Amino acid sequence: MYKCKECGYLHWLEELPERCPKCLSKGEVFVEIEEKAENKIEESLYTNELLIELMDNLNKVLDISAEGMNEKLDDDCYKLFTRVYKNSIEMIQAVKAEIAAHVEDDKWG
Ligand SMILES: [Zn+2]
What InterPro entries does UniProt report for this protein, alphabetically (predicted)? Predict the structure, then answer.
């Protein structure tokens, strides 16, 4: 695995491109990543995918609850959808914070 020195893009393929696909820098911009760092990234791949999938589904719950709030069928429904809406926002922010922590801890790539 190689990393672009300019922008941090990670290249998984053996053959290096002429230019970095992210920042378009060319020349000797790629450095090989140490095995330990590479293992750390690979070990966190599935969990990161789950976090992204979780955020996608929480965004769907957010949309559904917003629609439910707009319907205002009765007070109890409105309160329930409002609670779900607020909880979804909090959970989305918690997932984002976890992803940010992974990026900061080099568990992303
Ligand atoms: Zn780059």
Answer: RUBY_RBDX
pTM for the model stands at 0.85
Ligand 1 centroid to Cα of residue 42, in Å, is: 20
Q: 72 and 106 in one domain?
A: yes
Whether residues 97 and 48 fall in one domain: yes
31-60 per-position pLDDT tens digit: 999 999 999 999 999 999 999 999 999 999
C-alpha torsion angle, residues 71, 73, 76, 81 (rounded to 10): -20
Q: Are residues 29 and 54 in the same domain?
A: no
Identify whether residues 88 and 54 lie together within a single domain. yes
Cα 7 to ligand 1 centre (Å)? 4
Q: How far apart are CA 21 and CA 6, in angstroms?
A: 12
Q: Compute the distance from residue 106 Cα to the ligand 1 centre, in Å.
A: 17
